[in-house]
Amino acid sequence: MIQILRKNQRGLMLLVAFITIVAFVFLYNTTQLDELASVRDPSIYGKALNPAAIERQVKNYHLTSALGQFDLLEKLGGTAPDQGMAITQFVWNLLVLQHQSQELGVEPTDDQIADRIKSIPVFQTQGQFDPTKYTSFVSEQLTPRGFSERQLEEVIRDSIRLDLISDIVEAPAAVGDSELESVSRIFQPVTATYVKFKNDDTAGQVTVTEEEIAAFHQANQKSLLTEENRTVRCAAFELPAEPKLEAKAKIEALQKLANTASAVAAKSAEIAGSFESLAKEAGVEIKKLAAFDRGGLSSNGTEQPVSKEAIRAIAPAAFLLAKPGQISDILQAGDAFYIVELVETAPVRPLTLEESRAQIETVIRAQKASQLFAASANSAYNTLAAAVASGKSLKEAAEAQKLETAELQALIPAAESTSRLDQNLAAPTLLLKDGEISKLEQAPWGGFAIQLQSRGPVDEKLYTERRTELRETMLQGKRDLLFAEWLRVSREAARITMPGAEQG
Q: Which of 441, 28, 437, 413 lies closest to 188 in space, CA to CA?
């Protein structure tokens, strides 16, 4: 890094947000379980990936987050509903991005990487790159937490790869004036009436029989499985409780612990069966943990000999180990480092009827309640729509069915003062004419239908103020769609296989 930082070349636009040292408190070892731990025999572009390669990419995800590369995170994993799935999507999409960058011949240069790093505020003094700050950051913040300078550079490289490919893929996107005018009605005040269809009224009407539970169990045995469990041994490298260390002394002590743990992990991986003896030489006790699932919960409720914070670090790492005797990289939780050795794997098995009874009943009850609500809401909606078609107002028709109604009064959908809920309620009216009723829409309470009463003229002042923002929003939406389609096609070409896991 020092070599490439000596060069001066104009960099690309900085996508790195403000980065703080504090952010590294939240790195990968203390996050929730990574979904990639479930991958078995994965491959991409016809080539197999080993667990170490996957683990490296998972680490890059968390380093990417800590470095503030939010565009990279959102485009490659941000559409997933939870972090575990986001990590899975990010890793596979990142591998695709790296491959396509090479295929397209748009690989970042060392100078571009150096320029990007020099632009990060935490590495600057009075707006200028400060090599001392950079080297201190690497030694005091990266290294103690199991990250390397090379990994930092790779994250920056990936961020630039995304910029270069996005410039190519998103270039056709454009928003014309006529297109902009066509959506100006979001700046028109809307007056409307909506009726609520509540799903909580159906939950108490559902019953589940033993026959239904048994039939569900019989039909879903392949998906009704126990959690896979792992048994591990771990070596804990911990700061002494006393004396309490101040900032500089603590950093030095953590660095020493990290170095010791790294040495033990490296030698243990090289020499089979040496883990216990090397740990003892380092003055560290080996602790055997009770079997736990992917969430770190022990199978029989046994209290573990390490902290809950440590379990949150150990569990994901344990499920990335392929076979007994394999050693993990060092893991950090709080002011301690851990090395994990896989002892035993308890594979999944089908749940018995009794073991799955409560789970099955919950699923059936939810399905029945949903079906009952859908039938009830659709029936009520059809009656309302017929009444409105005959000339009645939605409010009058709803009152006849004893349904609750509410009003939107001169609400401007695009106004900053409009709540997210009201925006969602008003959205269907954008396609309605005065007096028309929307289709049945989803809502947090179940569903709703809305009737447009009137739409006022465009708020020209607000439209003028927001015109540039609106154009950029629409343009970005088009860019995102183009990139998403490119990524979809590229993923198909990558021939990703993930036996035993969802491909997302």
A: 413
